[in-house]
Design goal:
Layout (H helix, E strand, L loop, with lengths): L14 H21 L2 E2 L5 E3 H5 L4 H5 L3 E3 L5 E4 L4 H9 L9 E10 L11 E10 L4 H17 L6 E6 H10 L4 H12 L3 H5 L5 H10 L7 H11 L4 H19 L6 E2 L13 E6 L8 E5 L3 H4 L7 E7 H10 L11 E6 L5 H13 L3 E4 L6 H10 L4 E5 L1 H4 L3 E6 L4 E6 L3 H6 L1
Parallel strand pairs: 1-5, 7-8, 12-13, 12-14
Antiparallel strand pairs: 2-4, 3-4, 5-6, 6-11, 7-9, 9-10, 10-11, 14-15, 15-16
Helix pairs in contact: 1-5, 1-13, 5-11, 6-11, 10-11
């Protein structure tokens, strides 16, 4: 018989890994609740046309795409935003604005597997739809800051930019949208020389090259340099002012931004305004990122609707926690092995197990038919907290033997007081 392995780029999450992922998902849901975001669940499979419309050439090439039995071209979702935009044009089109939506689940891209990068991975997605005001962009950054703190990460850093600065320069120089997208794609990969080869105007090229030299240690000074540098490009200057307003709000909200990157770009084509990513010093991959996309919903047949959002890479957040040796703060339930000393006492042991579970205690009934000594050895090996031994003599007194497996101590406890004794 063949030995089957997971498909390359996919992986199993075993008990401790699954617990860590669930912890981060729970913190993402808590954050959503605190900020008033309501969860929506969308299909893993969507029409290819929807997912490819403005995702960017690189992501389009890396989507899992196939024909279904009805000969329709479909794909596994590479991110959530397109699905949420579809919802806004259909089921949610009459909902009052702003809309705050939250999603969590698996997404798929055919990337080269490496540390922190898989072909199936998990995201939490927050979208704030219906306003172009800078406080909406600030909120998306601030809730990301809260999630980073909630999972216990330290020394994380935010990087901000604004797609409107580069697009404003290129649009005024009459560069078509397809070429703009290609330039931004290359800039996203730091392939600046390759990007600049696509620019024909010498003035435009000089402005773009000069943008590489504007960064400083003071983020507000960087924004002022950007504004001065793009003077004469009206839309670019407006974008720089917008970035300044967002930066001020984020800072006033208690989240210091470490870097403003004048030539920062992200891989998705639908961004129109502020963009950002968050990192920790120990890893060179973003833990999350997002930005403003004011034209996507209109592209899908809806009314012109401004929107902003963020996706957090939950696998990467777990990796960051492991790297910084951050322990999930979830309260651990006491684990109890319930062991009947003979076959006749299985029913009583089952009843006691149910009673413990009703009290919120994790109870595992001995189901392997082991003798008591072997059952206790197994409970010890699996780091159970207690063993409840169900014996005939104790049952006549409505009691059981409770063994503390860490202290190697045991006592007879009345069944009526069992749950309270274990919880402590």
């Amino acid at each position: 018989m063949p030995t089957f392995q997971t498909v390359r780029g996919m992986r199993d999450l075993l008990a401790e890994e699954a617990e860590a992922m669930t912890f981060v998902m729970d913190k993402a849901r808590e954050t959503a609740q605190l900020y008033g975001y309501r969860e929506v669940i969308t299909p893993v499979i969507e029409p290819y046309e929807l997912l490819s419309a403005k995702s960017g050439e690189e992501i389009r090439q890396r989507m899992f795409t196939f024909k279904d039995l009805g000969n329709r071209t479909v794909a596994l979702r590479p991110e959530f935003t397109s699905s949420v935009a579809r919802l806004v044009t259909t089921s949610l089109k009459n909902e009052p604005k702003p809309l705050r939506t939250f999603s969590v689940g698996s997404v798929y891209r055919y990337d080269e597997p490496q540390r922190g990068r898989y072909r199936e991975f998990y995201q939490s997605d927050f979208e704030l739809i219906g306003t172009s005001n800078p406080e909406a962009d600030a909120e998306i950054i601030l809730l990301t800051d809260r999630l980073m703190r909630a999972v216990g990460l330290r020394n994380y850093a935010f990087k901000l930019g604004h797609v409107g600065v580069i697009r404003g320069i290129l649009t005024q120089e009459n560069v078509d949208e397809k070429t703009q997208n290609a330039i931004l794609q290359r800039m996203d990969k730091k392939e600046f020389e390759e990007a600049f080869k696509l620019v024909e105007s010498e003035e435009c090229l000089s402005t773009l090259r000069g943008s590489l030299e504007l960064k400083s240690d003071d983020v507000f000074k960087t924004v002022e340099r950007i504004k001065s540098h793009v003077e004469g490009y009206c839309k670019a200057a407006e974008s720089a002012e917008d970035l300044k307003n967002i930066l001020r709000l984020v800072t006033e909200g208690g989240c210091p931004v470490q870097t403003v990157e004048p030539t920062f770009a992200r891989g998705l084509e639908y961004y129109t305004g502020m963009i950002f990513e968050v990192y920790i010093p120990e890893l060179d991959i973003a833990l999350g990122g997002g930005g403003r996309y004011d034209k996507l919903i209109e592209l899908f047949g809806g009314e012109p609707t401004p929107a902003t959002g963020v996706a957090h890479g939950l696998d990467r957040i777990v990796l960051a926690m492991q790297t910084q040796k951050t322990t999930p703060t979830t309260e651990r339930k006491k684990r109890v092995a319930v062991v009947p000393i003979n076959e006749a006492l299985k029913g009583e042991a089952l009843r006691i197990s149910q009673m413990l579970r009703n009290a919120g205690i994790s109870a595992e009934l001995e189901v392997m038919g082991r003798k008591m000594n072997k059952a206790l050895e197994d409970a010890d090996r699996r780091k159970m907290d207690y063993a409840v031994i169900v014996g005939e003599r104790e049952l006549k007194q409505s009691a059981v033997v409770v063994r503390d497996l860490a202290k190697r101590e045991q006592a007879v406890v009345e069944i009526a007081k069992l749950s309270k004794t274990i919880i402590g």
